[in-house]
Write a structure and sequence with these properties.
With 222 residues, this protein is mainly beta. Helix content is 9%, strand content 33%. An eight-stranded mixed beta barrel has the order 1-2-3-4-7-8-6-5. The protein is globular and about 45 Å long.
Length: 222
């Protein structure tokens, strides 16, 4: 993307990102959220395989259909998200608590630029959000995006941040980059009623590409 397009993406999605992944109705009985003080329960990855000065060749465009994060037990279909009537980015419906959503106006995983994936942390009576343990990820953990063309883009986590929504790092998340990267976003931190104070953001870089061993089915486009 050009610098101009990066700024446009940031402007379009900012309002939605401040709420992304927050489905806060009912209780949290299904498990800890990423900001509840339990994010240190799992030790850092024993073998970090973050990119070591060598960039992987970018992939041609192909929409994501599945997302796998072994370290936190995520293996989910990916739906496509567009813009809501008010111009903000959609998030997966609360009834689709176990499905992640790719913002279809961001690059596809493996393309140059930041590919953006949103998911719920908890949705109360509808179940536990697919990204409820996102904050437990550590540098070096793997994230695999299965793509519609049968390929898989494997990313390596480089950073995990929990930030106040009021201080959301728009440029860091949506700004232009010269390599394929991934952003995973949900809510976290203390909860008051239906609202979470913070956002949990995972930054990752493309570290490998392969033929996907399995292809998930998309949950449709909104």
């Amino acid at each position: 993307m050009t610098p101009r397009s990066g700024r446009a993406l940031a402007t379009a999605v900012l309002a939605a990102v401040l709420l992304a992944g927050c489905g806060g109705q009912g209780n949290d009985a299904g498990g800890p959220g990423p900001g509840d003080g339990n994010t240190t329960a799992r030790p850092p990855a024993a073998t970090a395989h973050a990119p070591a000065g060598k960039q992987v060749r970018p992939l041609a465009p192909s929409v994501p259909v599945g997302l796998r994060i072994p370290a936190i037990g995520v293996d989910t279909p990916v739906m496509r998200l567009g813009l809501a009537a008010d111009g903000t980015v959609e998030v997966p419906p609360v009834t689709d608590d176990d499905v992640a959503g790719w913002y279809r106006h961001s690059p596809t995983p493996g393309q140059v630029g930041p590919s953006v994936v949103l998911g719920h942390v908890t949705v109360g009576t509808h179940g536990d959000g697919v990204f409820r343990r996102l904050g437990q990820l550590r540098r070096g953990d793997r994230v695999e995006a299965r793509r519609e063309d049968g390929t898989a883009a494997e990313f390596t986590v480089t950073e995990v941040r929990t930030v106040a929504k009021a201080d959301f790092p728009t440029d860091d998340v949506y700004g232009d980059v010269d390599r394929p990267e991934l952003r995973l976003i949900t809510c976290g931190g203390p909860r008051s009623g239906d609202e979470y104070r913070d956002n949990v953001i995972v930054f990752a870089e493309l570290s490998a590409t392969a033929t996907a061993t399995a292809t998930a089915t998309t949950s449709g486009e909104r």
